[in-house]
Amino acid sequence: MNYRSVSELNRDTRQLARELPDRIDLVVGIPRSGLLAANLLCLSLDVPMTDVEGLCEGRILQTGHRYDGAVSFDDVETVLVVDDSVDTGRQMRETKGRLAEMEFPFDLEYGAIYISSQGHREVDHWVDVISKPRVFEWNMMHHPMLKQFCVDIDGVLCRDPTREENDDGPRYREFLTTVEPRVVPTEKIGWLVTCRLEQYRDETEAWLDRHGIEYENLVMMDLPSKEARKRRGNHAEYKAKVYRRTDADLFIESSRQQATKICDLTRKPVHCYEENEMLNPGHLDRAFQKSSSYLSRFSENPLGFSLKASKYVLNEGYYTLSRLTERRGGK
């Protein structure tokens, strides 16, 4: 699983700022997540910023007292329209189509911090090519990919119970009923996987419904008591077993210790929500898994797989050559 945090986005945005030509006078963000990249970029470049709507309406966002220049479209010669990432290019093409209908007195260039292997067709500037599967910190809990994820409840969707609340009795039931959510995903989750006991399913389902958290499956521990669960002491093993038998692409786990063990047992990626870190299985394991997958796909459809592989190699070669040419000043 290829992952980028907000910290890495900031680092890579600064890299783009260093590589851009000096002629950029205004940065335009494509809503919503493109605004995050645009904000970081305009601060690095020390130029004003707006969004696509503002560009069409002739509005520039207020800059505060630290910006030295007077903000006016009269002084703008080149505008950079930027998004955080370009995958299929649909959003970027729609934006280009809309802006092409306007009669701007300045040049438009297009950029993204991250692109897919085919994304280079839509942008003039980019930093890195991120292949799938991929997920970003800033939209992970609100992305359609959630339907392919396993997600822990306590420590992710809500806080963990305190020792006093975790009495396996009335205080615990009150916690399950009244705890406030930390995050309410806006997409349906594939599998909620929790060490809560099956006897608390009614309270858990009611809480999820009350807060509008949608999911396909709710997997709970089928044990008679908290003491039985403690004696087992197999929280990570239990979650790993569930993760293995699903076709989920990622497990989002709150505990670093459990996240590490789940990753080790399944050889599949796990995101530690507590520390905002993506844990991936070892490089050799990933290479072996990919090789096995490629051999299987080739044996099933030799011609189709070969055609797709050829197209991928051509795309990879194009953007690699483009990046080398740009960095050597030959563009």
Task: Describe the structure in your own words.
This protein is α/β, with parallel strands linked by helices and about 325 residues long. It has 2 domains: about 1-135, Rossmann fold, CATH 3.40.50.2020; about 145-280, Rossmann fold (3-Layer(aba) Sandwich). Helix content is about 40%, strand content about 20%. The strands form 3 sheets. The protein has a 6-stranded mixed sheet, covered by helices on one side. Helix 5 links the parallel strand 8 and strand 9 (about 190-195). Helix 10 (about 285-300) crosses helix 11. It is elongated. GO terms for molecular function: glycosyltransferase activity. This is Orotate phosphoribosyltransferase. It holds the Pfam family Pribosyltran. Keywords: Glycosyltransferase, Transferase.
Throw out a few tags for this protein.
single chain; 331 residues; alpha/beta; Rossmann fold; 2 domains; six-stranded mixed beta sheet; 11 helices
Layout: helices, strands, pairs:
Layout: E1 2-4, H1 6-19, E2 26-29, H2 33-45, E3 49-51, H3 52-57, E4 78-86, H4 90-100, E5 107-115, E6 125-129, E7 134-136, E8 149-151, H5 170-178, E9 189-197, H6 201-210, E10 215-221, H7 226-232, H8 235-245, E11 250-253, H9 256-266, E12 270-272, E13 277-279, H10 283-300, H11 302-327
Parallel strand pairs: 1-7, 2-3, 2-4, 4-5, 5-6, 8-9, 8-11, 9-10, 11-12
Antiparallel strand pairs: 12-13
